[in-house]
Amino acid sequence: MLGLSLAVPVVGAGLILLLRRNPNAREAASLVTAGALFAIVLRVYAAVSEGGRPSLVLAEPIPGLPLALEAEPLGVLFALIASFLWIVTTMYSIGYMRGHHEKNQTRFYLFFAFAIASVMGVAFAGNLFTLFVFYEVLSLTTFPLVTHAGTEKAKRAGRVYLGILFTTSIALQLLAIVWTYAITGTLDFQDGGILNGEAAGAVVPILLGLYVFGIGKAAVMPFHRWLPAAMVAPTPVSALLHAVAVVKAGVFAVLKVTVYVFGIDFLGAEGASVWLMWVAAATIILGSLVAFTKDNLKARLAYSTVSQLSYVVLGAMLANSWGVIGSGMHIAMHAFGKITLFFCAGAIMVAAHKSEVSQLGGLGRRMPVTFAAFFIGTLSIVGLPPTGGSWSKWFLGVGSLEAGQVGLVAVLMVSSLLSLAYLMEIPLKGFFGKADGQAGGHGGHADHGSADAHDDHGHAPAILRWSMAAIVTTSVACVILFVYPEPFYRLMSMVAGP
Amino acid sequence: MRLDLFVSHYNYWVVIFLMMVGFYILISRGNLIKKVVGLNVFQTAVFMLYISMGKITGGTPPILVDPKGGGEAAAEVMYSNPLPHVLILTAIVVGIATTSVGLALAVRIKEAYGTLEEDEISRIEAEREAAE
Amino acid sequence: MSTHLPVLQVVVPLLAAPVCALIRNARAAAVIAVLASWATLAIALSLLGDVMSAGVISYALGDWVPPIGIEYRVDIVNAWVLVIVSTIASAVAPYMITSVEDEVERRRIPLFYAAYLLCLCGLLGITVTGDVFNVFVFLEISSLSAYALIAMGTRRRALTAAFRYLVMGSVGATFIVIGIGLLYVMTGSLNMADLAVLLPEVWDSRTVKVAYGFLGVGFCLKLALFPLHLWLPNAYAFAPSAVTAFMASTATKVAVYMLLRFFLTIFGAPFSFGVMALDRVLLPLALVAIVSMSLVAIFQVDVKRLLAYSSVAQIGYMVLGLSFASVTGLTATLLHLFNHALMKGALFMAMGCVVYRIGSVHIDAMAGLGKRMPWTMAAFVLGGLSLVGVPLTVGFVSKWFLILGALERGWWPVAVIVLLASVLALVYVWRVVEAAYFRPYEGDEGVGVEAPWRLLVPTWALVGANLYFGINAVRTAQVAERAAEVLMTGVGP
After folding, report:
1. Residues of C within an 8 Å Cβ radius of A
2. What pTM, to 2 d.p., does this model score?
């Protein structure tokens, strides 16, 4: 089953390549693959929730270091989210890529499938080595997606992207991994951690720091620059990969290292993670502040992601079970919320050709569904009921209190307020702002956009129906997760039962 | 004592002198032919080293003295060590080969550049690169 | 027959060479060269198999009993190096057929193959022999033919590059002869195993130390260890593509082998590390080589030169492994011998494909090739990633052992430098990748289509090996580790 979770997207990629002459069949292949993958992950979920730990050894590159897969609750949680949102994103891409007349669509779907395969590898990695391998493969497979446009700007963004992700992972993360291996002689993930009792003193906080900064995909400042740079990619990429799969692979790796390499009891006892809590807290606040200054919608969302990712890191660094539960829940909740926001941003770009926040005035009245979805997504990111985001914030708050860090609770509050302010501006402007505010410079373009929109009775063009379905799905999911967060909570309490 | 050491190892001093001369020519001369000459002197120094260490004071050439004719004395005949000499025959052949390859290259370089002076060649190359 | 394998390893290419020279037919010579190369691989593999199962093989040349006669002595270390050299030869030889026709004058082609086979013979001979003077002879056979091969490059700078290599190479070889001579003075023996037994009695002698110094400088010249690397970049940049691919993956590797064999087997690890402090001499040189040469590589505009500087940096990695003076470090060195041969072979062969179609390896000439020569550039990207040390490629495997070795010694700053240097490698590889994939094609429409399959198949064979041994390195790592143990413990049984 685990082997299938890797093989299915790869086979899907093959189908996509074979069917490149027929776009409809190609997209159908993408959708079927995504559906099949989700079905497989659901079966893994069923097995794991009954206490099973399916595992598989793929190869043994270096003696004693197998390339092994093992499904455990945290990985299943991540795989569930990624594979489900892949279906939704594929639906969305069909509308977006055609509506936006993107070139090289086959390459796009091809590498998307490869990227998902590596995400599955990250999710089900049975040891640190496997995690690292798929982490690097993920960087490589997403590179063509980030530079999809092939322009000078895309090239520079690609440099920043690979530069930061490779530099941190090779210089810091790999060092940490070899160091861990040198200390313990193993890299297998184990309950309670492998470093527990093997290392002590100053080594532990340094090693943890190497991991947290070395996993550049977690975008902890100062290694966050790649994430805004990656926003030159087509919106579905930003949505799935840079709001969900890639960045979540980062924080997931941090969480996994914390739980299964260090062990939360060990970290808590050593107090090794305290300094990193404050690094994460600083990232949360600074990310929110920078998001404020960004007028470009995708850039604002990107900095919001930087800030939100550090919630997950923070939860992990709290090193107690509530923190870890909140952390894992936040991986899920933020995924649904942020992907909704990105979907909306993309829809606005395709339908109305607007990419700056200041241009959005009055647009909500023409695109009510999109802006309503944006509103729900915002609520979830801020952490307000009735959306799933409120649960993760709650657990993170409890975790902070239990760790005795009242200051962190304040950080959480302040950043919630900040995110409320910079995100809520958008739906407010959309519904209550004045139409065609100061967008005079873009007159021709905007007119064209509104003409398109008017053709469809003040709504998105026909091809965007696929995209609209995706937007509605994820925003409804945000609400459902408030009522029914049960599966994710169950998985997380299996990881770190209180 | 010092002087004694100096004199008794005179072969080494010759070798070292020759070696340094060869090395100096190799480094200081820009002319490719002179470089080959320098290399030759340098290698010859090593041949000398080998040949001189095969010599044993009072030893005869290593040709088997007829045991019947020599009688008892034959067992006490002291031979020079033939092995280093044999080795150096090989090395001389190698040296000739190196020299000929070096000279052949020098001929080709002269054909291609019209000069054998190293600095001339680098000037030509620099000009060509600047022109590109 | 099989008892004569050690000598056949050398005799096959040695006899094939004059046949090539006499036959005066380019195609026939090419076929002979390919068959001879494949034969050496078969012999090397069977020798490795024998050594792995039955231990050291000793072959007395002409039935003269060692230590008087010349002994060919194959243990796991040189069996491993034999496999490396002959593997590369087997991949490059078929590639030569097409590449050389394009780059070398037609009437010289049979002579080219003769020189290639002599070079191969020399490299294999250095590796297989158990006699120190024999090492020198084979060294000169390989070097002299290498000078000739390099001089056959298309541009006239190939001539000056070859001349420079000749001068520096001969000086290096002469230093080695001096060292060997002094060893003979002290022990009266030229047999390696014999020397290893006799030398510890005269460790204190100044002559032995001087011999050690001469040999060290000689080897470092031959393996192009910084700062004695000056001959290498031009030689690699201007030689014919196939020669560069062959030399870059074999010649320096064999030089590293000589260094290991002399300093660890003959002098012994206790003398090298204990008395001569070899580790403390090599460590800074290796680190400087890695960092400075990677930096220099970043600023090259000729991609073959860029890769040549990268080679000097990679040699630094091999020497670094030695300087850890541990089994793990030596395992890294021996693995990197093989792994670097695979990656540099693949990279230089990909560049040979570009030369074949475009006629230039200037970085500007790469523009737009990602679309026009997709297989060639994909090979370059994969080889480049291997050079960087991305997981699932061989580059990662060697880097893993290297870092592990550094941390075992507690030298974590060394580990950090090694890792940062990988990032430098990423930068110089990525410059080429960006040119190939992000810049539009500027040449004529007619040229610059995909290279012929006759070039692509051997190239991709090496790329495939890069991936295969990256995913499944258990076998290679085991062999390298056993070889490292043999080197560290001295003469095996």
Report:
1. 385, 388-392, 396-397, 399-401, 403-404, 407-408, 412, 415-416, 419-420, 422-423, 426, 430, 434, 438, 470-474, 477-478
2. 0.87
